[in-house]
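Q: Hi! First time doing this. I have a protein sequence and I read that you can turn it into a structure. Is that right? Here it is:
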Amino acid sequence: MVEFSRKGLLFSLSAVTVAAASCNGKKTAAGKNAEKKPMNIVYIMSDDHSYQTISAYDDRFIETPNIDRIAREGARFTNSFVANSISGPSRACMLTGKHSHANGFTDNSAVFDGGQQTFPKLLQKAGYQTAVIGKWHLTSAPTGFDYSEILIGQGIYYNAPFVRNGEKIASQGYVTNVITDKAIDWLENGRDKSKPFCLLLHHKAPHRTWMPDTCDLDLFDDVTFPLPANFYDDYEGRVAAAEQEMSIAKDMDVVYDLKMADKENEIHTTTGLEEYGRTMRNSMSPGQKAAWDRHYDPIIQKFKENNLSGKALAEWKYQRYMCDYLGVIASVDRNVGRVLDYLEEAGLLENTMVVYTSDQGFYMGEHGWFDKRFMYEESFRTPLLVRLPGGKRGDIDAFVQNIDYGPTILDLAGVDVPEDMHGVSFLPLLRGEEVDDWRASLYYHFYEYPAEHAVKRHYGVRTDRYKLIHFYNDIDTWELYDLQTDPSEMRNLYGRPGYEQVTKELQAELVRLQTQYRDTLALRLNGF
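A: Yes, that's right. Below is the predicted 3D structure, encoded as structure tokens:
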């Protein structure tokens, strides 16, 4: 492998761009049926796409020119966050404009109450056609949509089954391409073109287990990624961080996560995921399996020969994780480009707000981790890029949260935002207007414990400089961070001399937000 460099990566990407430009995808359709008013909405959301792997935010790892186009022609939100960093609850917050305790979907074991108010239902009442295509992950069937074609549960990467308006159907191909095909087909052939539309295009990618399209398997073979500075974090002073189970070194399964399912059945793991890892190829066609094996068989053989352990194994796992994850991102970016090209060719782009975001952030080895859940920055933050025709271009630094997406879309559509929504419309920010009384703090609450990855339940408050977190349930610890001097959140300042006044002010702000949002459980747990 060669040492990582941006120049080298750009070269490696450009070398495959032409060959893979239409990898497993269908030719973009084009019509000339442009609606003028009201504004249409195309909301593209990936699953677990870290802001660190979008080059509009961070160009250390990959170039994402199509996603970056949204930023270049629109707005890049530099302080975008979620309310609960896990897939289903995050989606429920987005749909309802409310924090998890208010919408009832606090963790992935819950069932979303499809009878409650959501912004797609309000758009329908206002005359919009609504559709959701791709990942749903809310247990109950979609409501509030004229058309739905969703993956079953988490979905799979190859030849995934879908449920179309309640009926199970098969598909052939790589899931990111297939979802985009279905979305473009609905835009071109499925909708009533006399009405404005709101399309939620939800990708499975890059959710675990990061299975790239066959044409993207070799993209990062010659890249060595820099190890995060805190990859070997010892979690001093952070009890909950020390007790998680999302360590690349300890918890990332080499068969399930990193595809080391050798045909000789000699590689075995202890995480309980090996069996699932050995069946991941079952959905593939013979041609897909052949391409997959051409790529992974030599890697498996070399892995067996090297017989790595300790730090060498941990760092090998990190490199493989990055290669697979970024290979999946390459397909997401390519397909975002297909959607933008379709909208432009169909005459829709200048009357459509295009959003790109993720259901939360993700760890790319920071603190030695993968996954999300924590209120720490890498998982609390989420990318948000919005192209609003005639709107602001450039950065928006104001605090926004995924509870704001519904109110913003309703505001754009001219629909009154219900008073019981916790979020607020950031449409004025997108229009370049000054908003004097914008929020100065954010509230977060994570509930899913005991569960996979063993991240303790916690809630907290973040301001422009500080963050205060309370871990509770079978633990009772507080953490305080000065994000200005410690952006990686390595030094817990809670209880240290000199931070009494800061702590008191943050506790007061925490209570104010919990009272505002009526999170009565958290109010009872504060203990100060």
